What we know:
By secondary structure, the protein is an alpha+beta fold. The protein has helices spanning 6-10, 13-35, 58-64, 115-122, 173-179, 290-307, 317-324, 333-336, 430-436; strands at residues 38-44, 47-53, 74-75, 87-92, 95-101, 104-110, 131-132, 144-149, 152-158, 161-167, 189-191, 203-207, 209-220, 224-233, 237-241, 246-257, 260-273, 278-285, 340-344, 347-361, 387-389, 400-403, 407-413, 422-426, 439-445. Strands 20-24-21-23-22-25 form a six-stranded mixed beta barrel. Strands 2-1-4-3 form a four-stranded mixed β-sheet, with helices on one face. Strands 6-5-8-7 form a four-stranded mixed β-sheet, with no helix packed on it. Strand 16 and strand 17 form a beta hairpin. The N and C termini lie far apart (207 Å).
Amino acid sequence: xKRFSIRRFLNNTDFKLALSLFVIIGFIxxxxxxxxxAEVTVVQADESTSIRTHANVVEDVLDELSISIAEHDxxxxxxxxxxxxxxxxxxxxxxxxxxxxxxxxxxxxxxSATVEEFLNEQGIEVDEKxxxxxxxxxxxxxxxxxxxxxxxxxxxxxxDMQKEVLTSPGSTIEELLVEESIELGKLDRVExxxxxxIERDQGINIVRVEKVTDVVEEKQDSKLxxxxxxxxxxxxEEVVSEGKSGIVEKHYEVVMENGEEVSRELVKxxxxxxxxxxIVAVGTMEEAPVEETEVLAAQTEEESAKQxxxxxxxxxxxxxxxxxxxxxxxxxxxxxEKTENVSRGGNEEEGKTLYMxxxxxxxxxxxxDGRGLTATGYDLKSNPEGVVAVDPNVIPxxxxxxxxxxxxxxxxDTGGNIKGNKIDLHMSSPQKAASYGMKNVQVKIMD
Length: 447
C-alpha cells in the first residue's frame, strides 16, 4: 500500500490543473461581483462621496456611509428609491435659526442657503421700511439669529389734510417729514417735537403758524369845548362849531394758527384824519334887575317930557276915573323871593339859601382831560380858587355863591355826577380834594 504524500499530491498535474481552474473561476466570479456593483455619489454640504455598492435602495447606501437623516433634512431621493448605477444623492442637513419679530422670538429649522431664501420659504414678507438686522444674502449657519422690526402706520394731521403713512421703527418725526416731502415754514411747529422718536398708534400734528398785519380804522370822537361869551345871556348856550370826528388807523400784529386767530398785538397807531373840537359858547351876560329897568325907563320918560312943550288937553271922563283909582306898587322878582340873613366873617348878605351835599375835585385828576378848562372855558390851572361845579338846572352857570366852609365862589363848571342838590368845590391840589370827602353845607346864592 502506497503512502499519501502531500508533496506528491501538490505536484500532481491534475491537482495543479484543478487549482488553476478554481482560481480562474474565482477571479471571474469576483470580477463579475465587482462589476455588478452600482456607483453612487452622495453630496453633503458641497462635499461629495462616491461608492460602489450592491445596496438595493437609497436607505442602504446611507447606512453604508453612516449617514442619518433628521426630520427637517432635505434629501433628493426618498429612502426607498432603488439604487441605480451613476445615481447622485443630495443630502442637505437642516439648521436651526432664531428670528425675533417685533420683540417675539421663534426658532425654525431650515435647509435654505441664505436669509432671503429662508424668508421666502417661510412666507415672511419684508418691506423696504422694515428694520432687518441682517443682510438678505447672509449664508445660514447653525444657531444663526436675527430680528425684524416691522414698519407701522401713523397719521399726519396737516391743517385740514389727514394722511396715513408707513414709517420705519426708530425713525424720528423729522426723518418721516423728509421722507414724505412735507416742508415746514419758519414759524410752523410739530407736536410732538421734530426730534422725538415715532411711536406706534401715534398722531403727528403740524401747526401752520403765520403772522399778518391787520389795519383797523377807528373813529375818534370830537372833544366838547365850552367857552364863556358875555354877549349871550347867562344860562344860554350856542353851538359855534359842530366839530368833526377824527380817524385813527391801528396796526395789529395777528398770529394765526391753522387759519384761526390766537393773538393780536397793537404795534402802531396813526392818525389819518384829525378831529375838530365841538365848540359851545356859554352866555355870561348879566340881565339888569327889574327895579333898575323901571328907573331907567322913568328917567328916559322924564327927560323926554322936559324936552317936549307942555300942551294942555281936556281930560276925558276915562282919565278922570283913572286919577281916582289908587296906584298899585309893582311887584319885582327880587321882592318875591324868600330871603335870609347869613353871616360870614362879620359881614351879612341877603339872598336865597340852599342846603346841599358838597364834594371836592382838582383839575389834575385821573379822569380829567388834563387841560384845566371848565365847562365854561375857565382856566383852573391859572385860577384854582373860588370855582364850583353845579347842576345848571339848580344854580345857573356864572352865579356867584357863598359856600359854608369854602367861601365865595362862581359857578363856572359842571360834572357828570353833579345833579340836583349837589355841588363840587375846586381845590388847589388833588391832595386837598381827596381829603375833603363829602359834607352837607349851606349854599348862599349871592346874585
